[in-house]
Amino acid sequence: VVCMMNDRGQPSRLLRGVALFEGPAPAPGAELFAAPGDDKAVARLGTTAQLPGHAELLGLAVVKRKQAAPDTVLYLADGRAARVLALPLGDERPIAAG
User: Fold this and answer.
1) For the chain, percent helix, then strand, then coil, each to nearest 5?
2) What letters, b where the CB count within 10 A reaches 16 and e where it falls short, cover 39-78?
3) 83 burial level (CB within 10 Å; 0-12, 13-18, 19+)
4) How confident is residue 98, by pLDDT bands cut at 50, 70 and 90?
5) How far is CA 83 from CA 2, 5, 8, in A?
6) For the chain, what is the radius of gyration of the CA atoms?
7) Beta partners for residue 13, in sequence order
8) Do 75 and 32 form a contact (C-beta atoms < 8 A)?
9) pLDDT tens digit sequence for 9-68
10) CA-CA distance, 60 to 5, in Å (whole number)?
11) 13-35 residues labelled b (16+ CB within 10 A) or e (exposed)
């Protein structure tokens, strides 16, 4: 990784937060896609948790640089949406359920 950063100037993937809007928590390692039905993953989900004051599940994911901008929408294999968040988590505005 250090060699790649020296040669290319930046890592290809970044650690980002994600907000999952509906359904149960996906298993760690679940893949996220740029569009529903895509076959090439652009992120891999780590752990998720329900934080007090937030209607959605929040989690961590390693996301390809191109899709790592805050507010980018990614999709789980089952079609559920996830919104990319800047870190640190918990500073985001709560989103009302429904």
Assistant:
1) 10, 40, 50
2) eeebbbbeebeeeeebebbbbbbbbbeebbeeebebbbee
3) middle
4) very low
5) 29, 27, 28
6) 14
7) 64
8) yes
9) 788 999 999 999 888 999 999 999 999 989 999 999 999 998 888 889 999 999 999 999
10) 22
11) bbebbbbbeeeeebeeebbbbbe
Tell me how far apart the alpha carbons of residues 53 and 90 are, in angstroms, rounded to a whole number: 9
Please give the Cα distance from 81 to 97 (Å, whole number). Answer: 14
What distance in Å separates the CA atoms of residue 89 and residue 75, rounded to the nearest whole number? 20
Q: What is the DSSP letter of 94?
A: P
Per the structure block, which two tokens stand in for 72? 């980018």
Q: Which long-range contacts (CB under 8 A, 24 or more apart) does 5-11 make?
A: 10/65, 11/65
